[in-house]
Amino acid sequence: MKQVLLLTGLLALALLAGCRQPEATPAAGAGLEIALSIAPEPLATGAAEVTVTVNQNGQPVPIGIVSLRGDMTHAGMIPVIRENITLADGRAVVPFEWTMGGDWFIEVTVTLPDGTSARQTFDYAVTGS
Amino acid sequence: MRGTSPLYRPQSAYNLLHLPLVGRLLRWRWGRLALQLPFFIVAALLLIDGFTGPQNAARNLATVAPWVQYRGLLILAVLLAGNLFCMACPFTLPRTLAKRFSLGERRFPKLLRNKWLAIGGLFVIFLLYEWLDLWASPWLTAWLIVAYFVAAFALEAFFKESPFCKYVCPLGSFNFVYGTLSPSQIAVKNADICGQCAGKECINGSYSPQTVIRLDTITLRDAAGTEQRYEQQVIHGPQGTPGCGTELFAPQIKSNLDCIYCLDCARACPHQNIGLFVRTPGRELLQPEAWPKRWDVSLLVICLAFMSVTNAFGMVPPVYALEQSLIDVFGFQSELPVLLLIFGVGNLLLPMGLALLAGTLSRTFTRSALSLRDTVAAFAPAFVPVGFSIWFAHYGFHFLIAPLSIIPVFQEFMGQPGDWALFSVALEGSLIGLIQVVALLGGLLWSLVIAQRAALRLYRRDGLIGLLPWAVLLLLLMLAALQIFSLPMEMRGTEAMFR
Fold first, then answer.
1. How close B401 comes to chain A (CA, Å)?
2. Which of the two residues, A14 and B424, has the higher pLDDT score?
């Protein structure tokens, strides 16, 4: 009986893994090209400005919504989240902040009016100050 | 049972096992299991998320829970209550199962019954942490958790005692050392009872394949000198409780070193003579008879204090400059030899060398006849508070910059959107800095008091000169930590240097 309970418990825990929200398609899969440029350089802790450029088949995407999420590779750091930024003529300028020096990655999610959603991740090394 | 020291009766204030609800839970036959099960479920969740979840360390339970929450809360728990993590350790949960599949009643090899393995284990775990960037890898952290379960199970199955807890486990070794600061300790109520107890169930346990009933006759004298005799029925059987896994005999426990707070001794004692008592924090650090005069124990404590500095050093910019200069000088092609060199020097050679040097200088300055081993053992307890304060400053920093980050991570694990905006609270950087400085200064002061008492005890009128080398060493350790914490933290891996 104990073994049955243990197995049932472990099975229930394993099922939890299937509860996660579906993730957006990688950018390449949706036919989108996402590029980031960040100022100022070299990257250092403090305020920054992220310019997101999104093209589809070589042409700027006329309209869309961009969300950014900056995470450090170290566990337990608070992310920098910028959501629902309007993309116009394939370009969006997003105020950002490097809250600490170290390895960062920014995940960009682009949602087009037809519901297509794509994401891409960019890695950065930021110097502490 | 070994040793010839007299039975020990602490001047204790309050038995925590008498607390209304908590005490009853802890005394309950399944009390430890009740504490371990939630942690076992947590470990299972970490494994699931680590192996199947997003490999983003900031959004995975396997990395956030152990590397941020656990370390921050553990350090507080050790200081404010005691070795609570070992008490609820999930890795030893399969102990009963392992004992059932026991492959023999052999003892752990005598050669390994010391703290050298623990020093090696701590060295390896901190090396792996940096080399494999465990803080950034849910998958590898999950494998580390698996390794803990396998190692604990295998050693429990192969050997009679609990060698994993006592001699191997790096987490346990950390908790043992810093548990000496905590305000609680296992002790007996009346040592006279232990002297007449026939079975010493606290250490031998009360398990037996068949039921056996014994009658203990105990004679006690009250304050007026009147003898009182009572008989206690002692039952051994299949439902019996195991004795102390780390082989501590309750009436001789003078220190929290090696005590995993499992309370098996209290449950096994047929005379209800064992309790978890409130005491002065760090009591054993001032009691020379409570501290073993052994190289392995002394160097474990001293190395762990230095490890606190090198571990923090791995997160500030000068480490990258040092690594680069080592690459330039030695032409290393991978990160492992660089880290081996830094950690080998910082975590082993430097603490051992400086401890020997300070001990030699102390003896020379005071013309002491005390052996070098006993000199180092006398001052080793002084490294507990300063080491603890550096770990506290480091782990406290990680915890306080995102204390609630586990909540959105768990929400995402459960399939909900993580409410990062709500739970992104953090303490002000300046306030964290102040907490760090206060902790470091407090740790240094506490350490200096312990070292001063040791010096006066050993050298009497020459106490000041005998103290000097140790005081300088403790001060340098704290200054190194202060310097590190004053630098901007840079949480990054260094593998890019080798690409």
1. 7
2. B424
Predicted confidence at residue B4, as pLDDT, reads: 45
Tens digits of residue pLDDT in B394-431: 999 999 988 999 999 999 999 988 898 888 888 888 89
Helix, strand or coil, per DSSP, at residue A111: strand
Residue B92 has pLDDT above 50, yes or no: yes
Q: What is the pLDDT of residues B367-395, one digit of tens each?
A: 999 999 999 999 999 999 999 999 999 99
d(CA B186, CA B375): 28
B440 to chain A, any CB pair closer than 8 A? The answer is: no
Alpha-carbon distances, residue B31 vs B39, B79, B99, B316, B442 (angstroms): 13, 23, 19, 43, 36
**Angstrom distance (rounded) from CA A64 to CA A88:** 7
On whether any CB of chain B is under 8 Å from the CB of A15, the answer is no
Torsion of CA A52, A58, A64, A70, to 10 degrees: -30
CA within 13 Å, CB half, B474: 30
What is the ipTM for the molecules in this complex?
A: 0.79
The domains found in chain A, sorted by start residue, are 2-126 (2.60.40.1940)
DSSP alpha helix (H) spans, chain A: 2-16
Distance CA B275, CA B14 (A): 9
The SS3 assignment for A58 reads: coil
